Please model this.
Amino acid sequence: MTNPIRPIDPDSPPARREFLARVATLGALAAAGSGIARRALAQAAPPVDPPGTVPNAQVLAPKSQAFTVYSARPLTGSVTAEYQDFDVTPNDAMFIRNNLLTPDLDASKHVLRVRGLVDRPLEIPLAELKKMPSFTTQAMVECAGSGRSAFEPRATGTPWAPTGGMGCPQWTGVSLGDILKRAGVKPGTGHVAFSGDDIGAVPTAPKVIRSIPMSKAMERHTMVAWGMNGGDLPKVHGYPLRVVVPGWVGSASIKWVSGIEVLDAPFKGTYMDDSYRIPRTPVAPGSKLPADAVTTEAWPVKSIITLPGPGDRYKLGGLLIVRGSAWAGDYDIERVDLSLDGGATWQPANLTPRADRYAWRRFRLEAPLTRTGELTILARATDERGNTQPITSTWNPLGYFWNAIPRVGIVVEKV
Amino acid sequence: MGAAFAALAVSAIAQEPLVPGPGADLTQAKCVVCHEIQHVVRSRQSRAEWEDTMQRMVKRGAPLTPDEIRVITDYLATYYNREGPSAAAQAASAQAAVAQAQADPVTQLLNRNACLGCHAVEKPVVGPAFREVATRYKSDAAAPARLAKKLKDGGQGAWGQVPMPPNPGLTDADARLIVEWVLTRE
Model:
């Protein structure tokens, strides 16, 4: 069996090594017996899955073999950059960051309610929503904590791999602005809040609610989506309906959305006030989150190297192809520079045009391999405002916005 | 194979237990209401950060009293900080490990299965108080067998719509032991 998404020769050493390691792990666990594994889990952590939730095993079954689960409750996981060598992120490589449990919702009964400071509160059944003018766009969604494990010292939260926790699929739905215009937003309103139908392990768990400023809510690419890569949303990615706030931290793109509320100010709640916040100015590691911390919004400029993968082996005299993706929140990428010598010299990569307004831009460079040994590849993206990826990102208590220059080491061998 | 791998991967991340120490059992019982314990085991935070984390968890609905928050914060700040536990904390951990091994069988079962995350003897937490359960079933001869089965299979409806999760790892004998103890808490 070959890895379905690794784009290089499946018999090349790194891919093969990983595959064999995975099979060995499976073998050991299978030998121990799945019953034993399940019992061990039950003793260490009884699964608290209320009715109406989708079991993790079902959610994870269609995911790529390269998908790493960081936590089971709530479910989080992703692939790393070398398994993201795509123009468009397919469903099986899209990251998961649930706050609560995956709900099993009935699309035929799903209704979107629009309330708050509007002239006409609305209750739009999904079937009716789908009759509104819709569009498809490729857009970035990235967890605020993407790359968190690269922070030193370690920061609180899901230990996303340095290149894990982002994706750029195609989304299909209606513009949020069209829905808000139908409801008639009152003058002077400031924020729009989204409420998800995910289910907590305890009845005291508050609903997952987050708001965004009206300017971003009215941006025509901000959407309420039912489609992902040409099909319905998978259950774990928000079926039957979710918000997509392109280029912003993933927590704004509320999954399983059933409520929209127009407010005069930012929503007050735990997903606004206790998480997804960064200090205004840097703080020492180990500090409490300052009271005046601000809510995370658009991602800063960032890139990943998707080919080659870490530790890949090449033959002297061969051709090295470097590929990757770059993005910058609400802004476009101006250039991506690559270094093939650990940062001593840099050269511009070829940038492909952006497929859509909030899609990442793919970059590419070819170079002959003229000497043996370890070769360190770095990428450095610059956005249209002139902001460039830093050598390291500013430490913050909850480990958000890791956007430092990515690094991949390969080995060049004698023929 | 994809499904099998995913299921096993999920199982495989929940194995390492908490370091023994004052408050370890309560921490285990409360955290696993919503998380696998690996979330805690892999964390290293300052006391200030643990205080923030506990505050966040309370706002996310964790069933905790102020006293419980204090005990759990102390435990986490002592054993899961970036510098590692102090010599005194390590000595306390060794003592706690001995006490844990010598604890009576029911206490061990309640701790190992996180029963005390949602139940207490005197007061309802997420589930009913053990005292209420004992009072309701004291003259029901068939109750012990029924409740023992419920511990293993999970249940819902007798005390409200919040379900109790199944505990498939419990043996019949252990389930009966817990039930007999609960029914004498009146």
